[in-house]
Every structure is written in C-alpha cells, then in structure tokens.
Amino acid sequence: MSGLVMPEADAATMARRAEIVADMRIIVPGEGVVETVNEMRAFETDGLTAYRQLPLVVVLPETTAQVARILKYCNERNVRVVPRGSGTSLSGGALPLEDAVLLVMSRFNRVLDIDYANRAVIAQPGVTNLAITHAVEQDGFYYAPDPSSQIACSIGGNVAENAGGVHCLKYGLTANNVLGVEMVLMSGEVVRLGGSHLDAEGYDLLGLMTGSEGLLGVVTEITVRILKKPEAARAMLVGFSSSEAAGQCVADIIGAGIVPGGMEMMDGPAIRAAEDFVQAGYPLDVEALLIVELDGPGPEIDHLIGEVEAIAAKNGAVTSRISTSEEERLSFWAGRKAAFPAVGRISPDYYCMDGTIPRKALPTVLAGMRQLSQKYGLGVANVFHAGDGNLHPLILYDANNPGELEKAEEFGADILRLCVKVGGVLTGEHGVGVEKRDLMGEMFSDTDLDQQMRVKCAFDPQHLLNPGKVFPQLRRCAELGRMHIHRGQIPFPDIPRF
C-alpha cells in the first residue's frame, strides 16, 4: 500500500481466521459472509483507490441484532472491525485492514418510515442519499444535503463523513439535517440518540457521532429532516476571465447578505471537461464559471437575481445567463454534478482533494494552487462549493509514470497546508480517513489530539473500531493517563460527567 503506514496486523487474530470466519457464519447465516480472495477484491478499497488491502473477512449483516452480536464478539476477542457503507469515501475511511472484520452495511437498505407531520424520514444506513428524496418527492418534499455522489453514496456514509453538497450553503450539512440515530457501540450495546423531535438536553452526542468516521460506533438507523420544495428556483451561469475575479464575486455576494440555495465554481479545465461530457451550454471562453441558484418566492428570486447580476458586473463578469425553465436549471447543474467523471476523461488519473477556507481567502488560495501546479508540474482542475469555501481541487496525474502518484499526494498535502495557513481546515466533507491523517498536526496541537483521543477511548477503549484512521499516531488509551481518584474524590467533582 504505497508508503502508507497502517497498524501492524495482530498475529494471534490472523492465526484464528478460520475460527472467526466460522463464527461469523453462525451470526450471519446464508450469503452474509465473504471470505475468498477473489470475492473480497470488490471490498479491498474505497473511493481513494490508490490504497488497497484485503480484509480478514467481509460480513454483511441485515439486522441491528446481528451487528450487535458481531461487535460484541469482536470486542471480547480483541478483533478489529472496519465499518463500510457504499465505499464511496474519498479519504480512505473504509480502507480494510488485513486483521479486521470488514462490516459492510449495504443490506440495511430500506426506508422504514415517512413522517410528514414531523417532516422526518427514518432510513437504514444503506439507503442512498438520492433515494430519500425519491421516497418523498411525489408529495413535494426532499432531503437537502446532496453530494455529487448522491446517486451512489449511502446515508450512513453521509453521517460518518458529515457530507455536504451543492445546497449545503443555505440548507446545511448532514449534521444540520440529522435528527437521530440508532447505533451499536463496540461493546455490542444498542443506543439511540435524538429522534423525530427537538434537540435533547445534555451533551450533543448526536453531533459527536455525525462526522466521527466510524471510530465511535456503527449506525444502524437514521432519522433525517425533510424539507418542502421551494416555491421556485432559478440558476445563473456567470463567467469570468479569472478565477480570482470569480472568487471575489463569491465573497461579495455573501457579504451583501445574499444566501443562495447553491453557489458552485469551476475553473477553465473543469468547465471544458464538463461541457464536452454533458453539453450543458457552459461558455468555453471563460476561465471561471459560477453557478448561482436562488430559490423561494418568485418576486424574491427576481430581486436577488438583479442584485447578483450587479455584483457580478462589478467584479468584471464577461458572460451571464439565467435559466428560463426547470429543464434548463437542471442542465446547468448536470455539468457540475458530472464534473468529477468528466475530468476523468482528460487525465488517466486524478486525485480529488477536500479542504475548506474562509471565503475571503478564495483569490489567495486559487493563486497559490496555480503556483503549486507549476512547482509540481501537474495540472489541476478546480470544482468546489464556493459559497461555503469547500474546495475540491482535482490534481491530474498518470499513475503509470513512476513517482507521479507520490508527487500528486505531496501537491495535495501542500494545498491542505495552504488551507490551514489562511485560517481554514483540512476537510469540509470527505473526512480525514487515512488521506489527511498524517496532516492532523498541521491543524491541531498534541494536546488537541490527545483530547480527541480521549473521546475515542470513552467509546472504544481497546481501539478496535476503524483503527489507523484520523489519528496520526496510534496509541493505547492507557497512554493518555488514567483519571486519578484520591481518597474517593475525583478531580473537579462539580463538572457534570456522563
């Protein structure tokens, strides 16, 4: 697996593989256990395909009771577990370990309940993001977070990574749209957090679970918020002669108090690749393109379109086009949604990054990426959620050329370092996984990481759940120090503890 360092395989677990496989077959009978090398190849990687590793065994449970029995079994026998959804993670979050059970949740694929009175849907984690909208759209509702992979990515994976999408600027990320979860702890205990109601008092454990990347528990049921479709929506295509001008326009739109339903940006290479692939009507003579969607009552949209046009003109927009029908609006978005596969047609390989910056830093970071592109001799196409500063640079390379993958990875690391330098963060929605694990020190101090590890230890003391992800140095919980109790008194006894 290239130069990536993962936890050393446990020899005792490897020696007991046949026994573990047999026990898994008892817990999940039928075709729920995959153990042959050829069959496990389908699970050896996720969306970060540069890294591959066969698991110890693949298990596909169908019930919460089965998940609980699997985790309890593994916890009692010191066997590692790696949870996996649809495998679309772009940060290696579902990368298997050779001594770990790969717990695949794809058979949890049913919408369990639609509650229009409370505007909530209860779904199993294997249900795809788009399937939730399909389940309620005939009644005028939809699920707002819409990552580009929404046709394939699962809602369970969305919760694990706190996924966003083109409409997260106005309607929020997964964390803002999840109301409750049922989850299984490593001990096998089944717990519920939240539900179809207002926020619960006490610790925000639901917020803690959303974006926890499979390190704290395995989600088996999710309650999400659904919204009524807006009265109307129109999209604008605004072209600029430079990415810096487009970036400044984004900052000025938000600065004017306008919150579009979505605001995306593509640079020249991405524009041309998407147009060639989808024929969405994108202008080919510009170096940056903004897609700005405004939704709500018709008169409000008309007013805001005029405001955005004025701001764009002030920033030197060279083209502007407004959708005149629902079909045209959807065609504008079709190119953006297909941008990733479109870029795959112009380069043998590409490396998709994910960092988030303050909007005002867009021009600076775009200029910095251009300099890095020259430094590394690799092209880069930019497609990102401009409204909330979530960048998705696509670094173009050829894995058949020796050293180019490593060069692309270092290029990507420098982009993330730049994001942190201007006041941003390492990830917006793809997660840390293994991809950004060794860059956590760029953003967090050792004290910060120790505190995060203590949370992990509270849920998984033996560090069996998805080890080797997120934390740059694998340590035992005991190394963080035990709480010292002197004469029956704990430190700071007035602090509430759970």
From TrEMBL:
Official protein name in the record: FAD-binding protein
Cofactor: FAD
Claim: Oxidoreductase is one of the keywords in the record: yes
Molecular function GO labels: FAD binding; oxidoreductase activity
Record domain FAD-binding PCMH-type: where: 51-229
InterPro entries, per the entry: FAD-bd_oxidored_4_C, FAD-bd_PCMH, FAD-bd_PCMH-like_sf, FAD-bd_PCMH_sub2, FAD-linked_Oxase-like_C, FAD-linked_OxidoTrans_Type4, Oxid_FAD_bind_N, Vanillyl_alc_oxidase_C-sub2
Tagged with keyword S-adenosyl-L-methionine: no
Matches recorded under PROSITE patterns: FAD_PCMH (PS51387)
Coiled coil: none
Organism per entry: Nitratireductor arenosus
Pfam family of the protein (one): FAD-oxidase_C
Record's keyword terms, sorted: FAD, Flavoprotein, Oxidoreductase
